[in-house]
Design goal:
Strand content: 15-25%
Largest sheet: 5 strands, antiparallel
Oligomer: single chain
Radius of gyration: 31 Å
CATH architecture of the largest domain: Orthogonal Bundle
Number of domains: 4
């Protein structure tokens, strides 16, 4: 492996990047890239905006502007937010560039010539009112897998199931809000199934070194059997299909967006004045390619993209796909419709200081959903900043330098040459893993480096940094970033322990030589911490290097456990690295989040009110017998995701009632609950089970259902008027 290529999943340019995106795809990649650069590995990190497809066209239709305007708005905003977040991209490109269009069309044409694309006539949803075919996201309906009633036509946001559009139940056009019809159209399909064996071998070769979630999801697709996948769509916005008979059609976004990594690399190569340099990153077997993304994008990068690269020929395949699960916010999923989320740009408005960027990077790094869904809370954020960044890391650096200022006028004290020689020897021995017992090691140092000055306290902290640097590096190599950051913070804890054990505030009154040795060590530890934390909090590390009179660009990971600040160096007093966050600031953020979500749901409720039916007189209402009842038992109906069968006590008799609330209530949550029953409804059979009435429910703005319950003290059988 001569070089490493890294990509983050291209963010879709129809919304702002939020904390979930940052923790799932961007920050893990950036941590890895920055760490590997510190280890001297040639790196290229590319990303960009995914700007084609139906979602952007829909957004443009809603706002009455062009898709290009939508893409421009979000591309610029997200590029700026990611830059402020400290992302170290070599290039951040976009898939609306002419160079991307050309590359996508080249792949399409090559596949067509090789017989890898097959024409197929199919039925597709068509909006009669607007006289338009309705691909993918232009249609919503009921998910065929879980019954969610606002599912997209190709994927359910509730259960994440993927399916063919015609499998969607109760479809509705997002253009006219009417039921679409089916009309025949012609499209081209990629012979994906022909790569089943190739992909089984590819995934099998990584089953021992890839993350379990990645392997399991990949095998779930392989076990189901791969089939042809459509690569064209009837849509006006996107990469045009390069065929005369395909006028009005574009290349499907899933196909061309994956190629955005390649076109971004080509663009980078041109900016370097070496237009063919992209080939060594994508076509040289000495390049290792790592694709960072969230779990919703796994199969595209483990199966589809490798099949495409293999079919094109002479391209490398991903060496690893370190995909993450989802990040939740205050215990709930991020939701665009419910306004439950925090965008990076919103955070930067409320937390504009450079230290706030590092604070967020650190907190999110410890919240990365590596093996299961994780949760970000403002309270945890506050604790990370106050108890770790400020109280441990910032405190050690600040008091070490301030004490140096007060005792040695800010100049690093001199130590014997043997001190540094012994330090370097100790670092090598510890990292080699064959260090003898502490007392024996100290004796060896005394014999080998006479007058070196290293005692038990120095031995402990030098060993901690030597081991800690290697441990953190191993975690980075294994994509265990939370553990890597935790190991790094342990170095700050070891440094604080050294300072406290040496008590320079006492020795400065009686032994300035010992105090000078202590502060010399502390300044080396300050530099070591700045190197170790550079992948996580790069701005703060850069400021520390500036105080030391050095440049962070000259740092190297191997220097974490070694002296790097010469005696006689003049050290500047740093500004406070991290300030503690008050409770009022956190409470304001939580209140802002809740208020915004409540306002969004209230607005949605107003928009979605159903029109009232024709007026009725009191006699018609009185013909509906509403009675109070108590649920005595409840159970799910077999082979149904939605239906529950309940026994309800109406006081004067027991009734069996079937209700479609299984996705909103568990059976044991209903037992003992008061409900209102339509008691004179004709019996009906649902899934073969007789229902002798109906329970009253209300819709919620988010598409849910809640039972209407009377007060607990009302007797069963009472009339509801």
């Amino acid at each position: 492996m001569k070089r490493i290529l890294v990509t983050s999943a291209l963010p879709y340019a129809n919304g702002y990047i939020h904390f979930g995106h940052a923790a799932g795809s961007f920050l893990p990649a950036d941590l890895f890239v920055r760490h590997m650069r510190l280890r001297g590995m040639p790196m290229l990190y590319v990303c960009g905006s995914d700007e084609n497809g139906a979602a952007i066209a829909i957004e443009a239709d809603k706002e009455g502007i062009t898709p290009r305007e939508i893409a421009d708005t979000y591309h610029s905003a997200n590029a700026e937010a990611l830059e402020r977040f400290g992302m170290s991209f070599d290039i951040y490109s976009r898939t609306s560039n002419p160079a991307h269009v050309a590359t996508a069309q080249e792949f399409f044409t090559d596949f067509l010539k090789k017989g890898l694309l097959v024409e197929q006539e199919e039925e597709q949803f068509f909006d009669n009112k607007f006289q338009r075919f309705l691909p993918d996201r232009y249609v919503e309906g009921t998910c065929p897998n879980c019954g969610f009633e606002r599912a997209r036509s190709d994927e359910c946001d509730n259960c994440l199931a993927k399916y063919e559009p015609l499998e969607l139940r109760n479809p509705v056009s997002l253009l006219s809000r009417e039921t679409p019809v089916l009309r025949k159209t012609k499209h081209w399909y990629f012979r994906f199934g022909e790569y089943q064996e190739f992909l089984e071998n590819y995934i099998g070769s990584h089953k021992n070194d890839w993350k379990d979630n990645v392997i399991q999801q990949s095998y779930s697709w392989l076990n189901a059997g791969l089939s042809n996948r459509p690569v064209t769509r009837d849509l006006s916005w996107g990469v045009p299909v390069p065929l005369k008979e395909a006028e009005g059609k574009v290349i499907y976004v899933w196909f061309e967006a994956l190629l955005g990594y390649i076109t971004a690399t080509k663009e980078w190569a041109r900016t370097q004045g070496k237009p063919d340099a992209w080939k060594e990153w994508w076509q040289d077997k000495d390049t290792a390619y790592f694709a960072f993304l969230g779990k919703d994008n796994i199969w595209f990068h483990t199966l589809m993209f490798p099949a495409m690269l293999h079919a094109r020929g002479n391209y490398i395949l991903p060496s690893a796909v370190p995909a993450n699960e989802f990040l939740n916010l205050e215990g709930q999923k991020f939701s665009k419709s419910r306004k439950w989320g925090i965008d990076l740009r919103d955070y930067f408005q409320d937390f504009p200081h450079e230290r706030d960027v590092d604070a967020l990077r650190y907190a999110l790094a410890l919240s990365i959903p590596e093996t299961k869904d994780a949760d970000f809370t403002w309270k945890d954020f506050q604790a990370r900043v106050n108890n770790e960044l400020a109280a441990k890391l910032g405190n050690f650096i600040n008091r070490s330098i301030k004490f140096l200022q007060s005792t040695f006028d800010g100049v690093v004290p001199a130590v014997p040459d043997a001190f540094n020689d012994a330090w370097a020897h100790l670092n090598r021995v510890v990292r080699a893993g064959d260090a003898p017992e502490a007392e024996e090691l100290l004796k060896q140092l005394d014999d080998q480096f006479e007058g070196h000055g290293i005692g038990r306290d120095e031995l402990d902290v030098i060993s901690a940094f030597a081991q800690g640097g290697d441990l953190a590096a191993a975690k980075y190599d294994a994509f265990r970033f939370k553990d890597a950051v935790a190991e790094t913070m342990r170095l700050a804890e070891a440094a604080n322990k050294y300072f406290n054990d040496r008590q320079p505030w006492k020795t400065s009154k009686t032994d300035m030589e010992a105090t000078g040795c202590t502060l010399y060590v502390c300044l080396q530890l300050v530099r070591g911490l700045a190197v170790a934390f550079a992948p996580v909090i790069p701005a703060a590390s850069g400021r520390v290097f500036g105080c030391l009179g050095q440049k962070i660009d000259d740092a190297n990971w191997e220097q974490i456990g070694l002296p790097g600040v010469p005696s006689g160096s003049a050290i500047e007093t740093p500004e406070i690295l991290f300030s503690k966050i008050e409770d009022a600031v956190i409470e304001a953020q939580v209140n802002k989040l809740v208020a915004r979500s409540q306002a969004a749901q209230a607005a949605a409720a107003k928009v979605e009110y159903e029109a009232l039916p024709e007026e009725i007189d009191i006699t018609a209402f009185e013909q509906t017998a509403l009675r109070v009842g108590t649920v005595t038992s409840a159970e799910k109906i077999k082979k149904s995701n939605k239906l529950l069968c309940m026994q309800v006590d109406l006081g004067f008799e027991q009734r069996q009632i079937v209700s479609g609330i299984a996705q909103h209530y568990k059976p044991d949550e209903l037992v003992g609950r008061k409900v209102i029953v339509v008691a004179n409804l004709k019996p009906a059979k649902l899934r073969g089970v007789e229902s002798q009435g109906m329970i009253l429910c209300a819709d919620t703005p988010g598409g849910g259902i809640v039972l209407i319950s009377p007060d607990a003290g009302i007797p069963d059988g009472m009339v509801v008027r």
